[in-house]
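Re: the 123-residue chain
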Amino acid sequence: QVQLVESGGGLVQAGGSLRLSCAASGRTFSSYAMGWFRQAPGKEREFVAAISWSGGNTYYADSVKGRFTISRDNAKNTVYLQMNSLKPEDTAVYYCAAAISLVATTIYGYDYWGQGTQVTVSS
């Protein structure tokens, strides 16, 4: 069992930056692939970024490539999402998720989810 708690969301102007953190409980964090997803009002939850258990492989949605960076610190049981050059269309609730098996880019590949943190980008 893994519990995930996101933090770092907030209100930012377009062009600004935020860094989201996701703290995980449990001693096996380093064995999980991790992902970030987001869900805007009235829309389905969508993939944002993912990282393998070692951090050696990362994956991004086309909409955030070049602006967002996913990373992890296995010693701290934490995964991060650095978001730069934010746009109003990035406004959503951001969720982190953990996958027991291989890293995935769909919600179906993940086994544990956090409660989410709100990110609002004003124009």
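The radius of gyration is 13 Å.
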